[in-house]
Amino acid sequence: MSGRARMALCAWAATLMASCALLPLVDPATWIIQAAFLLAVQCGVGAAVRRVPLARPLTVVAEALTALVLLTLVFAREQSFAGLVPGPDTFRHFAELLQQGGDDIARYAIPAPLESDGIRLMLVGGVLVIGLLVDTLAVTFRSAAPAGLPLLALYSVAAGLSEGGTDWLWFLVAAAGYLMLLLAEGRERLSQWGRVFGGAPRSPGAEPARALAPVRTGRRIGAVALGIALVVPLALPAMNGGLLDGTGGGVGSGGGGGGTISAVNPLVSLRDSLNVDEDRQVLSIRTESSDISNLYLRIVSLDDFDGTTWKPSKRKITAVPDGAFPTPAGLGPDVERTQTRSTISAADWYAQDWLPMPYPPSGVDVTGAWRYEPVGMTLVGDHGQNTRGLTYDVTSLEVRPTAEQLAAAPRPSTAMIREYTELPDSLPAIVSDTAREVTAGATDAYDQAVQLQEYFAITGGFEYDTEVQVGSGSQAIARFLRDKQGFCVHFSFAMAAMARSLGIPARVAVGFAPGSPQADGSVAVGLRDAHAWPELYFEGIGWTRFEPTPNRGSMPSYTVPDSPGTTLPDAARPSQDTSEAPAASASADESCTAQDRKELGACASESPQAALAADDDGPKWYALLAWALAVLLVLVAPLAPLLWRTRQRSLRLGGGARARGRGPADAAARTLAAWQELTDTAWDYGIAPQESQTPRKAADRVVRLGRLDATAAAAVHRVADAVEQVLYAPRPRPVTGLTEDVLRVAAGLRASAARGGRLRARLAPRSAVRVTWAASARWAALSRRVSAARPALRRPRDRSAES
After folding, report:
1. Is the whole-model pTM more than 0.70?
2. Own/partner pairs for 576-580, CB < 8 Å, 24+ apart?
3. Where would you tag: which of 81, 264, 309, 400 has the fewest CB atoms within 10 A of its CB?
4. What is the pLDDT of residue 702?
5. Domain locations along the chain
6. How far is CA 225 from CA 136, 152, 187, 699, in A?
């Protein structure tokens, strides 16, 4: 096999090995077989073109066209000419698939199902693009070391999205592929000098001798690259979330087998939205229920608590069941229930991904692409499906447990307790201490739950305040319990956390409180009816609603054991302030204006941390420092040439220590520095220096190409004469005014240049490339010193032993 062919094969293998880091993100992983085949075809075309041979740019173009044709054949056959030649429709179809893939990436949880053509195009197309870059750098341009950058980018994207403890394995696989590529390049370069020497070993235990300098160089480069890949992430702030993270939306796809789901937190900027003067109707309901005070519409449940906020867990989803839904988890046959039917119509502007329904639903009749999450008994839209302008029918159960049934509920299963009582270690002790203090006289879990509810809603002295600055982080609930001010999210989150600390399974439901009856018999649900409430689990009854928030909704009758069938009288509850009501998540369309966002807080893509995230404790100091350095680098990097030239000019024309000296050596240094500044200034205006010319010839060239006037031309020649005196005269005569002459030359060059040339010379001076030359020289000197310290590695081998 020729060296070029071996390099092409190694480039193909290295790209696939780095692509393995993407395997945990998609299920099944069969896409990599297709990607491997298409990449092999692409690399094969490149190898064939290089044997012709064609110019290097034409080789790259040939491989790029091959990739485009292959993607057209696989993903856009119907939109192309003869199923192979891409046309305008092909590119439009690619754009649609990429948009669909982007939506699916934001919606699916890990691992995302492979049925999505958009995700598959992103995966396969991404591998082909990375493979093209690697093949171009390593094989076409014979520089394997820079090919590690696209490989590292591919691995970094996968590592940033993946979860679990196998990231190190994929890193080793990708690193092995890169090192293999470097070693192949070393062997290829060695082959340019002759054959790879091999033969009998010099001693019984010795390896065959071979020229190792290029291999050793490749190993060094690989070690540096791997070190950077390992060390640099440690200096960067942690990125919570990602394209496929749990805080992103997620739906599975159809076919019964489902996928996984991780929902967007459906509350948006509540604190800003609660004070709106204008309410907007979100839903209109016509229901058979005789008690609309219990007609809560549930969007999603939040059951994963990380100490900062609550969010939905990732769940498997399936197709929407035909007919009746399964019986809700934990609901026994002895609990009274009534089935009721409701017709719900969503506003044309309200585009919620989750279907608002009474809980628990027993059936739904809805059009569109919807999927069913059985744990929360919720429906979520698939591939962009939402509630905009939708009308649907929901059959639900009105469950009426009694206080006695709740009090007599047996202990939940171990699995239920383990999953729904989990609390982070960072939760302040005040949460559990307050829970035990409030429920000190309780005899059972139900009594504890009622006392927690009354503590927040009645006896604890809490105030409903939509402008409170509670904050987030591990101390957020502690602040809320101390300051006793907040709105529905704070109350529900705090009660759920305290219930879990007592061993009661708890979660938080998000949706709408009962709306307002209308003259036509319907019920109008507006933005101000958006609400969050805790749900506690009781064996035999299931998930049960509680209402700890003052002025919101209604306390369930089963939480008042002395008065079955009633709620607490209005006098027992704090006065209601109708100006403070939460706003729902309105995944409105992308045309939502800034004014809409300000007034309604319900724009489409907003999904900030809902509850205790109003006033964050902030990231750790080292994260802030890292991001500040990153921002500084982004801002300063474009100005680096300008800053470097400004500093050099200052040093050369009087700012340096040598310029302040008065001896002959200092005078010579000042003269040479002025000449270097003059030639660099000319270079900035497009007159590149020619080191082989004498100062006089160089001065003539600057005057001619720079179209300098007489004053500037005389200044150039005066500086050149001074340089000749320093270089050639036995006793150089003193020369003054060199700084002024250099400034005159700069002014002349600036006057004769066009506006674009002046801007280029100012903002992106060409002479700034000298800083890279200086760095290269320092690196070369360092390498020589290191090599000198290791003479054994530099000593030529005795070829007589190799013959």
Report:
1. no
2. 576/551, 577/464, 577/551, 579/275, 580/274, 580/275, 580/464, 580/465, 580/466, 580/487, 580/551
3. 81
4. 92
5. 3-204+212-235, 259-600, 639-771
6. 19, 9, 19, 45
